[in-house]
Amino acid sequence: MYRVVLFLLYALSWLPLKVHYAFSRILAWFLHRILHYRISTVVANIARSFPEMSYDEIEQTVRDFYRNLADVIVESVWCLGASTEKIGEQVRITGQEDLNRALDLNRNAVIMVGHLGNWEIFTGLPDLRTHYGIDLDNKDFVYVYKKPSSAMADKIISHIRLHHGSCSIIESHQIIRHIIKHREGRKAFFFICDQNPYFNVSRFTADFLSQKTYMIEGPETIAARIGMPVLYCGLIRHGRRDNEAHFRLITENAAGCPEGYVTSEFARLLETDIRNHKGTWLWSHKRWKKRIA
Predict the structure, then answer these.
(1) Does an H or E element contain 249, and which?
(2) DSSP type of residue 203
(3) Can you give the residue ranges of every domain in the chain?
């Protein structure tokens, strides 16, 4: 079944991008109007996050969310058949000076990101040095991920992310051992930090999108334990074929920061980007399973 699915994805990937976007419009309509994919979660999350919004504004944000989600899906399929140069034409990177400043410390760096824009397209980038002025080999762009429960989904997603050799991936339960083993390395570890904490509660909370919110502890805890620099990376979608990754340094050494500072800064920066690009965040995630009174 894995081979059959992968064959079909490859066959679709050779279609022009404009054809994929035509499919995306149909897929967005199907997810929203027919399948009602997590519609109650999407509406509730948006309404609670923006209590000032009217019903019509909420409905528009819901439509924008499904359109962006469909674009993420079809673009991920298209990336299988596209060259890294073609993918690079869809992506710009800003704030390289902050990332290079962290790398100049000759330590590994923690990069905190959220499910904003198209977070998958950045795993297929061309050479980072020549195209983006980042002083790092692509293999040292390491994406930390939580393994899906489905073995086939894990194989397909991993194949798509590693297909171009533009990055490395590592499962979240292996990351602490890996970083300690390579603590003198010079790698950028990308942590997606906007999910619900694994145990629904956390030592770290933030005022995030109009709600008291439990935040994931891992990235700050690891960075503080080893004394790593931490950056925020905003994945901003300005439109189709125009994806931006913007780096911003939070601290050069998390060990010297008050507890919770790094996580609260991440939450503040991510919220600003979400408010400016409301329809491009992953509203279908059950982010507030455990609400704080």
Answers:
(1) strand 242-251
(2) S
(3) 87-280
**Which amino acid is located at 5 in the chain?**
V
Q: Is the pLDDT of residue 293 over 70?
A: no
> What is the phi-psi region of residue 227: left when phi exceeds 0, alpha when psi lies from -120 to 50, beta otherwise?
left
- How far apart CA 58 and CA 241 sit, in angstroms, is 25
Do the beta carbons of residue 50 and residue 96 sit within 8 Å? no
Q: Are 235 and 176 in contact (CB under 8 A)?
A: no
Give the residues across from 281 on adjacent strands: 116
Interval 28-56: pLDDT, tens: 999 999 999 999 999 999 999 999 999 99
What residues contact 86, with CB distance under 8 A and at least 6 apart? Answer: none
In the chain, what percentage of residues exceed pLDDT 90? 88
Closest CA to 64 of 288, 287, 281: 281
pTM over 0.90: yes
The structure tokens listed for 98 are 């902050």
